[in-house]
Amino acid sequence: MAVCVAVIAKENYPLYIRSVPTENELKFHYMVHTSLDVVDEKISAMGKALVDQRELYLGLLYPTEDYKMFRKLHSSYTDVMCNPFYNPGDCIQSRAFDSMVTSMMIQVC
Amino acid sequence: MAQCVQSVQELIPDSFVPCVAALCSDEAERLTRLNHLSFAELLKPFSRLTSEVHMRDPNNQLHVIKNLKIAVSNIITQPPQPGAIRKLLNDVVSGSQPAEGLVANVITAGDYDLNISATTPWFESYRETFLQSMPASDHEFLNHYLACMLVASSSEAEPVEQFSKLSQEQHRIQHNSDCSYPKWFIPNTLKYYVLLHDASAGDEQRAESIYEEMKQKYGTQGCYLLKINSRTSNRASDEQIPDPWSQYLQKNSIQNQESYEDGHCTITSNKNSDSNLLSLDGLDNEVKDGLPNNFRAHPLQLDPSGDPSNSIDGPDHVKSASSLHETKKANTGIIHGACLTLTDHDRIRQFIQEFTFRGLLPHIEKTIRQLNDQLISRKGLSRSLFSATKKWFSGSKVPEKSINELKNTSGLLYPPEAPELQIRKMADLCFLVQHYDLAYSCYHTAKKDFLNDQAMLYAAGALEMAAVSAFLQPGAPRPYPAHYMDTAIQTYRDICKNMVLAERCVLLSAEILKSQGKYSEAAALLIRLTSEDSDLRSALLLEQAAHCFINMKSPMVRKYAFHMILAGHRFSKAGQKKHALRCYCQAMQVYKGKGWSLAEDHINFTIGRQSYTLRQLDNAVSAFRHILINESKQSAAQQGAFLREYLYVYKVNTYFGVDTKIIFK
């Protein structure tokens, strides 16, 4: 169901970005980059009260996403983080993460 | 939107001004031609009144008009061709480039420090030319002629005879059923007789006596003696007389140009898109930002197989730019107004003041009163009886007769004396004299009538002007009805298929929203109107939308960058290479060094190509170099293509001084 998956670091650069190869990759890259503005907006609107936010899923930017998918992605991401050899800020190169993303993209395509 | 020179409160009244026609005898024309100007051009710099004027509205309230401007133009008997207008707009935009070394703003948003200029003068020139060159149509009366100046010279054999001839000519043009253009406001157009007197060569006594005769015949308020050309000798400019005409004449006005190839500009733009840098891919999927989803050449596609040598559209570029350069050269060589002294300038100013105060405004006042009386007398009949008889006897309206009419007005055509049109006329007159309260109520009434009759084009026009009047009303008694504008735009675009009118709505509405600080609505509005049919318009609107995003309270920097890239792409499709390069360079500031390598590569590649076409070879080389330096995530074929391009441009750059003509063939 997903055509493009991206993990963005705090400093706004992509740690991981992958799209279904048949599509125009450049287009997706641009879209993701631009949609960061909307993310920024939502974060700033939330205010300090939710700093320790359980609300990891900022809500649907566009109402087509699947919440379960996000959960899977997030748990794989925490796995990558837990890897003691992984330096935060590096690009994600874990094979397990890759295969999880592939499974997500193939799912309904 | 970028900051503009004029505020919206100045822009809108200046865009809708009373139109006056000018009909000159040959002798009078010869007199003004001594200054290399036609009569209408002579008046242009002086057509804004320096003092306030006042008039009485139908309720006998005194109404003060500030900063009134009038537009005097020669009568043209054919509406301007759309091809000619497009070419003019193209020239205006390419002629207006950012000045070298322009002081730019530094905007800090998050961790982005951007160096961009806050103003876009090319957009303002485009907008001004666009609004001025709109052809007159039947559903609105704002640019119909209210009056006609008949000009004859005192040095003619029989000036009085000449005046009657001119008067008959005007009558013929207006009432002859063959001439459907230009459009006149009312059947009884005001005629103002101007006797032009050459102060250096003419006989003063004779001029005065002729003027006396005219006053007897036409009344003191209906004529004027204008003395010009006082400069006696051709003094080689020991005093610097200012030349206020050059700024008006550089815009190669349509009225001055003789002939056009209608398809000329379309041919140029087609060639540009054929040898376009980006490959023509099939139709693409929907882009989430709400852009039209049928870009033929997708802006975000790289062309690995293209070769720089194919992309040189030098001849096309030179051709379209050369026309503007020629006219510029021609205009800078000529001195305008060489026979006029400063006293003459004052006399012309005085003339306009007199004309407006004693001729035009009383005429407008009288017309408003007449229309008002007509409307009140109609309202006297009981409303329900009137509407019932209308329904049963289907009134005097012309039902859809042919497909053409259907396309234009989507169903209904009103005869010129229809009461609904009278309301619209009255509303337009009030708007032209800046009486926005009365204008709003008339537009509102007219809108209701038109909507009831399902006359969509007329309704859209009334909605548009009602929204603008509501905004301009002093004291702001009601909030700006943005939904009126939205409905108008939608109607123009979808039902009437008239993009020119829709564009006007969007330009005005975006400016209003910007002045209220509603940047995201303005941006959405601008983006909605970008479409396939006009690259230049889409490019300019996208750029303005980008500026909206950056001017928001919390600037959306990435959206700014994205829309600048789209704008750059449309600019290059429209043949405006310098503007395209500028857009891409500004967008680059946002993407540089941020790790979005595919995007960065794409921008660098395009900058490289554009710089190459504009012969800025150093820029081209460094742009291509940037692609190669960083670790690339591109496919092998793509990387190979980049390397080839770099080597080619580098080679050309090294040999640059030697023999450029051979290399660039």
Task: Present the secondary structure layout.
The complex is a heterodimer of chains A (109) and B (665).
Chain A (H helix, E strand, L loop, with lengths): L3 E5 L5 E6 L5 H22 L20 H16 L12 H12 L3
Antiparallel strand pairs in A: 1-2
Chain B lengths: L7 H8 L3 E6 L1 H8 L5 H5 L9 E4 L5 E4 L5 E4 L7 H14 L9 E5 L2 E5 L4 H12 L12 E9 L5 H17 L14 E9 L5 H15 L4 E6 L17 H4 L14 H11 L39 H20 L8 H39 L2 H11 L9 H7 L9 H14 L3 H17 L3 H17 L9 H14 L3 H17 L3 H10 L6 H16 L6 H17 L3 H15 L5 H17 L3 H13 L6 H19 L5 H4 L2
Parallel strand pairs in B: 1-4, 1-7, 7-8, 8-9
Antiparallel strand pairs in B: 2-3, 5-6
Helix pairs in contact in B: 4-5, 4-10, 11-14, 14-15, 15-16, 16-17, 17-18, 18-19, 19-20, 20-21, 21-22, 22-23, 23-24, 24-25
Question: Which key phrases capture this entry?
Answer:
heterodimer, A: 109 residues, mainly alpha, two-stranded antiparallel sheet, 3 helices, 2 strands, 46% helix, globular, B: 665 residues, alpha/beta, two-stranded antiparallel ribbon, 9 strands, disordered C terminus, transport (chain A), Trafficking protein particle complex subunit 2-like protein (chain A), Longin-like_dom_sf (chain A)
Structural overview:
The complex is a heterodimer of chains A (109) and B (665). With 109 residues, chain A is mainly α. In chain A, 46% of the residues lie in helices and 10% in strands. Mean pLDDT of chain A is 69; it is low at 48-64. Chain B has helices at 8-15, 26-33, 39-43, 82-95, 121-132, 159-175, 204-218, 246-249, 264-274, 314-333, 342-380, 383-393, 403-409, 419-432, 436-452, 456-472, 482-495, 499-515, 519-528, 535-550, 557-573, 577-591, 597-613, 617-629, 636-654, 660-663, and strands spanning 19-24, 53-56, 62-65, 71-74, 105-109, 112-116, 145-153, 190-198, 223-228. In chain B, strands 4-1-7-8-9 form a 5-stranded parallel beta sheet, sandwiched between helices. In chain B, helix 6 links the parallel strand 7 (145-153) and strand 8. In chain B, helix 4 (82-95) packs antiparallel against helix 5 (121-132) and helix 14 packs antiparallel against helix 15 (436-452). The longest helix of chain B is centred in the middle third of the chain and has 39 residues, at 342-380. The two termini of chain B are 40 Å apart. The A-B interface holds A 11-14, 23-27, 29-31, 33-37, 40-41, 44, 62 and B 110-111, 281, 284-285, 287-289, 298, 300-302, 549, 554, 556-559, 561-562, 565, 591, 594-596, 598-599, 602.
